[in-house]
Inverse folding.
């Protein structure tokens, strides 16, 4: 795959960048269509052998996913089946003259990359009308995920997106601006070491000349890592080391993908509450359960000869039938018969508890 990419670059340098034909990108679609999916009704794209980027669409929500990223509007899904991802290349290596295409089996869209966004609040942009799809080079390598309105999400963002299980983006509490080809501190949000109008000379020993690259160096930095800045302040050189922390996402209403705790009780429409230990915790007055003779503290063991081990099973049985023989266990001090010598035979478990059947009807 790398050799193919080098060959394509070599050919383009020798012969110029000729506009590819639609048939070229249709062939790319046939080659890469296994990495383009629909997942629970939403467009999805394979990022690795078990990771999917699923584009959130209006009025839809996934039930199970690793994370949702509000900046990219993507769910990250880990699949239990194997995926076939398209080989990814660096969209930053392309020029305005390089052709790109959005894959389609009939009518791929072809054009150029317009510009790459300076920050995560913006989107990379194409110079042609676009649709949701897989953005490819003429050599069938993935450049990103195309969106509508000419936008796309480049691979550099997708690679960071798939790296973490939470929607993490790096931040140092500073917003930078560019003036006359120089980078300055524009806004200090949460960092006492910088001042507005500090000129950024270098970061980690590398000269800073590109606002986008500076922002992305921070965005893609590992959580808790340290960046070393050299700045000019009032014509004086200053060295500043600052730790990267998590970008604040509190202004987004993020969907909750944490598993809900299992229920600990349920209420039957027959008038009794049962907890996870299958003990009756309350009974409604004049309900079917009350009339049948159930009492608080009774433990349900069996219904219609089916052993009950959890209240989900109990719920299902009570929902399906109309007439039930319920085997319960009751403490002897709650038995009305313990005051009388009636000769009634009950099953004594030798621990102060008795078992007997109660008939329950709807």
């Amino acid at each position: 795959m790398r050799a193919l990419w080098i060959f394509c670059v070599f050919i383009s340098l020798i012969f110029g960048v000729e506009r590819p034909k639609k048939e070229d990108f249709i062939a790319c679609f046939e080659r890469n269509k296994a990495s383009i999916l629909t997942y629970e009704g939403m467009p999805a794209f394979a990022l690795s052998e078990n990771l999917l980027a699923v584009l959130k669409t209006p009025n839809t929500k996934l039930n199970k996913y690793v994370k949702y990223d509000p900046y990219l509007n993507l769910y990250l899904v880990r699949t239990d089946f194997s995926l076939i991802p398209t080989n990814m290349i660096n969209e930053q290596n392309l020029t305005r003259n390089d052709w790109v295409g959005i894959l389609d089996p009939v009518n791929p869209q072809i054009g150029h990359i317009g510009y790459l966004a300076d920050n995560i609040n913006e989107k990379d942009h194409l110079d042609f009308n676009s649709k949701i799809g897989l953005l490819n080079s003429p050599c069938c390598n993935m450049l990103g995920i195309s969106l509508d309105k000419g936008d796309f999400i480049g691979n550099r963002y997708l690679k960071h997106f798939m790296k973490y299980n939470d929607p993490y983006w790096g931040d140092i509490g500073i917003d930078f601006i560019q003036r006359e080809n120089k980078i300055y501190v524009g806004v200090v949000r949460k960092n006492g070491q910088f001042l507005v109008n500090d000129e950024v000379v270098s970061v980690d020993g590398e000269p800073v000349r590109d606002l986008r690259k500076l922002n992305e160096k921070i965005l893609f930095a590992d959580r808790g890592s340290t960046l070393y800045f050299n700045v000019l302040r009032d014509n004086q050189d200053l060295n500043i080391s600052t730790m990267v922390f998590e970008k604040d996402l509190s202004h987004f209403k993020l969907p909750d993908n944490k598993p809900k705790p299992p229920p600990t009780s349920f209420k039957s429409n027959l008038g009794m509450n049962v907890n996870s230990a299958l003990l009756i915790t309350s009974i409604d007055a004049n309900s079917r359960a009350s009339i049948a003779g159930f009492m608080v503290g009774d433990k349900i063991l069996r219904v219609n000869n089916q052993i009950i081990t959890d209240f989900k099973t109990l719920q299902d049985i009570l929902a399906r039938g109309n007439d039930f023989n319920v085997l319960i266990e009751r403490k002897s001090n709650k038995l009305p018969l313990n005051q009388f010598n009636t000769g009634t035979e009950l099953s004594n478990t030798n621990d102060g508890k008795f078992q007997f059947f109660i008939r329950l009807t709807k």
The longest helix spans residues 2-15. Residues 265-361 form a domain with the Pdz3 Domain fold (CATH 2.30.42.10). Residues 338-345 have pLDDT under 50 and may be disordered.
